Amino acid sequence: MNKNIRRVGKFRFSARLIEDTDYDILVEIMSNFVIIKCEYIYQSFRDFEYTAISHLFDEVEEGMEYPEYTILITREGKRRSVSVHRK
Question: Is pLDDT at 3 greater than 90 in this prediction?
Answer without folding.
Answer: no
